[in-house]
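Worked Example 4.2. Consider the chain below.
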Amino acid sequence: MYEGYGFPYAFRRLPGIWLQCYRGKSEGSYGKVSAQRLYPGASDEAEVHKRIYHLTQMYPGQIFGVASVNPHMDEKQYKAKIRKYITEYHFKAVKLHTIGHAVHPF
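Applying the procedure from the previous section yields the following structure tokens:
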């Protein structure tokens, strides 16, 4: 076990995935962990999201998925991808990366 996260060290080596740990209720403990694509251009989008889904299944209630899809495509196609990750993979959030996806927030 990797002491800093409380999860097997191998997860830190998964390509294209960023794990973010949130503090637990007690000093030095961790609560939930979010898993998302490392950056918008990282690896194959569908494959990375599938690996994130498998992580959430291996550690239910501890790791939750975050969808990160480049919005520069047909609106229906984008919504279908997001819907799949939310409904089929049970991801809890959607990340819109302003720099990585080249989106101006205003």
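The longest strand covers residues 30-37. Helices lie at 45-58, 75-87. Compare this with Example 4.1 before moving on.
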